[in-house]
Amino acid sequence: MVRRSHLKTILLFVLAIFGLVWLFSGSKLSGPRPITGKPTVVVVTVFDDKYDNTAYSQHIKDNRIQYAEKHGYGTFIAKAGDYDLAGAPASWSKVVAMRHAITKFPNCKYIWYLDQHALIMSPNSRVEEHVMGTQQLEEMMLKDHSIVPPESIIKTFSHLKAHDVNFVITQDRDGLATTSLVLRNGEWAKFFLDTWFDPMYRSYNFQKAETHALEHIVQWHPTILSKLAIVPQRAINAYSTVDHGAQYKDGDIAVVFSQCSGTDAKSCANEAERYSQRWRAAFGANH
To answer: Organism's domain of life (predicted)?
Structure first.
């Protein structure tokens, strides 16, 4: 009798140990999958439907593809019409496109969203070094800096370190600028994009749609603010004109046509042509 009770206790103890091992090993298996960094960066651009299959859109695509091929990056080119925005402005498509790109390239390390009205001008500038390199980012980050200029009471964290940053963005004279931004892939990125794309924000009549929604989220959600770095505009988002932001200078990684329109002398196609020979020459010289 004593031996049987001892044997039963031992068996129950062994089963409990196996159960705990299975439980903890199962939780590890269900945790975040390691990111291999292949490709290191995915360049994301979304075109309004009116630019689909035009000479202008092909010009922009060629620019993205040549840059990505040089560094072994991925490209994700989408149309705003690919996504159901439930009546929200087409500019919201950038948010869901970034989320889509992460699904298609789950092992990429960074997403670089660059607006359709922009060109990459510096072929040798690598995102993981030029923007996300630890020393470079540490030097560029604007700490204790108002989110919405000139004097928003909500400011970037003064103690934030480069290795803690998951989201890099710039400002122009109006506020946060969403025409060029870099996002570190991972569980936080998915959470952030899902939060930004929440139907409540899309249905709210923000004057600048997703841009003002982002300003609201950043200022009221410390979980997002604690991972955000604002860098000087020319670092990733220089403008072709000086009207409401820092103007492009030779050597900047990209130029954004911030004031271009659909037609006339200020058309986006004409703006792109101003820089076409320069970027093609720079890329050709580095092949």
So the answer is: Eukaryota
